[in-house]
Amino acid sequence: MKCFPVFLLFIVTAARVDAQPAAEAYLPRIHLTDSAVFCPEVKDQSQSPTCWAFGSNSLFESDLAKKNNLRLNLSEMFIARYAYIDKARQWLATKGKTYYEGGGQFRDVIRIINKYGIVPEEVYDGRPNGEPNHNHARLDTAMKRFAQQLLLEGKTELNPIELGQMNDTLDRYLGKVPETFLYNLKPYNPKTFAKEIGLSGDDYVDVMSFANLPFNQKCLLADKFNWAGDSLYNITLDDMQMLVDTALAKGWSVGWEGDVTEPGFNYWAGYAISDYTPLQFTEQRSKNFKNESTERDHMLHLVGIGRDEKNNKWYYLKNSWGTWFSKYKGFLFMDETYFKLNTVIMMVNKQALPQSLKVKLGLGH
Predict the structure, then answer these.
(1) What is the dihedral of CA 166, 172, 175, 179, to 10 degrees?
(2) Is residue 1 part of a domain?
(3) CATH code where residue 293 lies
(4) How many distinct structural domains can be found in the chain?
(5) In this structure, are residues 287 and 280 in contact, taking their beta carbons and an 8 Å threshold?
(6) E strands, the chain, where?
(7) What is the 3-state composition of the chain as percent helix, strand, coil, each rounded to the nearest 5?
(8) What is the pLDDT of residues 275-296, one digit of tens each?
(9) Which are the contacts of 188, defined by CB distance < 8 A and separation ≥ 6?
(10) Which of 4, 102, 239, 284 lies at a C-alpha separation of 20 to 30 Å from 359?
């Protein structure tokens, strides 16, 4: 996932500020329904391609509040750090043929939690020198150059010395991860903390919807961001939308990944709108993904449903670009057409799945 940081969007938005009031005039008034679920406050990924970590952690924080009545602030930079190491290993093993950038996807976060655990934000904020914001420009450059040099030397795996050098670079820009820490006066390490709070990647399922792939089974999503070759459940678009509605009605939220570079995505005004009305959404989705008019470039946290004065449905999503310069303080409303055309992947706790979908996927009876 490219995961465009907010400062890039502001460059575009600033050039169109004068046009915003007129563009907003035709937009309906939307109010949230009772299906909005708890989510923690909006954070700011700033100048770092880490929306995938922010979106996933927000989903986990919301779910832990529902499941265990916990209010937690989990570390995004812990996730980003270990993803870099795992992606480097795969990049070398494939001789540079897989994705090796600062971006990521839902399944990366699941993999890291299962393998390394997780820590609170207060233990590891990824800003070792007290920087006010995340800025990964130099980190991303340093990591890419280091891995490229190893590749030029013919290396296909990291030896202990090279892994140590990579960790030294990550320590410099993100800080050193403590082996143990205290939280609520109890000692933990990342793995024991994940176990204590009840956070396991095995509790989650990823879904997509593409008509060119078999439905109701795991399929490979073939694009460059799927560097680890993960398979996801492919379901119908109707089931995808039913999943969201059912999850919210049960009090669960949903991780959303899709395309936010469409003309109808307006962060400033807080709306994602599509005026395109295809006769066959299902077929159009596959076509758009194949020709890359729909891409995986951002991750959001879907937490509620809104209705306008005509009773049209709008999904309510939390962003990770801070609260400033945003009508809804970091949240936005997405209409159903935009959702149907531009949603690529969703992640949700298995408990949130509709029973009929569990049966179709072989996840329960």
Answers:
(1) 50
(2) no
(3) 3.90.70.10
(4) 1
(5) no
(6) 30-32, 181-183, 186-188, 204-208, 217-220, 231-234, 254-258, 265-266, 271-272, 298-308, 313-318, 331-335, 343-349
(7) 40, 20, 40
(8) 877 667 888 888 888 877 788 8
(9) 119, 180, 181, 182, 196
(10) 284
